[in-house]
Model the fold of this input.
Amino acid sequence: MLILGFESSCDETGVALVDASGAGVPRLLGHALHSQIEMHQAYGGVVPELASRDHIRRVLPLTDAVLAQAALPLTAVDAVAYTRGPGLAGALLVGSGAACAMAMALGKPVIGIHHLEGHLLSPFLSADPPEFPFVALLVSGGHSQLMRVDGVGRYSLLGETIDDAAGEAFDKSAKLLGLGYPGGPALARLAEQGDPTLYRFPRPLLHSGDLDFSFAGLKTAVLTQVKRLAHARPEGPATPALAEALGEQAKADVAASVQAAIVEVLVKKSVAALDATGLNRLVVAGGVGANARLREQLDAAGARRQARVHYPELHLCTDNGAMIALAAGLRVQAGLVPLGEEAPRYAFDVKPRWPLAELGQALA
Ligand code: KG4
Ligand code: ZN
Done:
């Protein structure tokens, strides 16, 4: 069973082909990615309309590249998967439109996949795949969640952010430091030169007793600190001039201290989730999962309580088509995808807002 997968929920066009024949983990036969980062950089963030138009331009050439890697013709494809949501509506519609058109032309089924399910199953493509059940820490630009995962499609929400996502906290802090878009990796790079103990930024909800997160207060604290260092009026506006007034070392110290605050909260809550569920396996997924300090400290915390921590391969941490084709393959193998007569018709069906826990509830 060969499944072609499209990811187009935000600023990355990803296409991949997996072989989901048999019962083993689907095998990746080819994958290609185009990042729109350069295009959006000039605007300091993702411009949705430009994102959609660029997905249109990229999706077919990337598909050709993937089929060439696998040395297979399009007619060998047995099903076409796409990211159905959550994400930018226009961007999602491109992937959904391409998938439906291709599947219809081939007379094969389409499979709509939840973007976060793709992220959370992506470690199955690594050399050291996890076993069920596990706790998943999903940390991306739009989501921060802890889930209990009992199997493919069996997800229950343990906790989530009540305001900003962890990636958003990285991105907004980076913006205040004049680091541009995408801020997370830039802030992480700068943080390597800084002192993480110099500024004590808030660790919201750290002792709340539940598994929820809150990161919105962090950007206010960072702004206050940046103004102080720039000798600006506390009640003045946040302008690019503030960051320019800071020396490189001061910026690096703020970056390191913000990263330390975010990482500490994510690590402590992940450990609390393992304690609460009695599980000893943690899977980390989503763009922030690429953060080196987060990985280092989760590994150390895992080792202390004899828990295994699994990550996707670094290049599959951020958005990609492989995770979408993989999730579709695992769903097919688990018997969760209506194929044949019951397969969904070729409707352009996207869900820009779509809680992952709904997938679990539908099956409960
Ligand atoms: O999963 P992803 O590619 O897209 C979404 O589904 O949102 O995650 C993107 C997020 C951005 O907020 C980006 O700044 C963050 O992941 N990110 C990082 C790192 N690499 C990406 N944050 C911290 N450190 C990194 N190394
Ligand atoms: Zn993502």
